[in-house]
Amino acid sequence: MRVDEKHQIMTAENNNQIEGLKKGVPSVWQEVLTLNGPGLLGYATRMVGDKATAEDVVQDALVNVFRSIEKFDGRCTIKSWLYRAIRNRAIDEIRRRKRFIDIGDDPENEYFEDHDGHWREDCFEWDGHAARELDSKRLLKVVHDEINNLPHAHREVLLMKEVEGLDVKEICDALEISAGNLRIRIHRARSVLRAAVWQSLNKE
What we know:
Blueprint: H1 3-22, H2 26-48, H3 51-68, H4 78-96, H5 129-133, H6 136-148, H7 152-163, H8 168-175, H9 179-203
Helix pairs in contact: 2-3, 2-4, 3-4, 4-8, 6-9, 7-9
């Protein structure tokens, strides 16, 4: 099957799904929630810090999605829209707890070399020297613990990309940011996480 034919089939299936959601067809809603529910709950749990609160966040967000489904215009996937809804509701909860930290968005040119477009600072790679020297389970636990301690803007991009496996477009649509801005956020998040992981390991 050619790529364009596959894209046409996927687009048709997506359109049918959207139509079913807007008509309130129970089986379509069940299909969407079965497919995305575990990931959404996992993402919310890591964002707000505990499962009970996360369940409330997901429930509230999905109720809002159900009530506003007519506004969905198809410019992103249902999956991205769901993650956006969860993310927005999670941030409301983080703000309510006064744990929200605004890290800002710096211009791209502060992160790239003018002459070649490369990063000014190298980014940490989990399959590099550190991972070979340290016990993988120990490192993974430290990484997960430190992800939970990151500012929300750092945490959310790592969760979407590294944990939930969303692609670039899905993340950009969910966060309503450009690919360039996402690239910066991921780099900054990994850099902060790298420092936190090494600090934690050096304390042991």
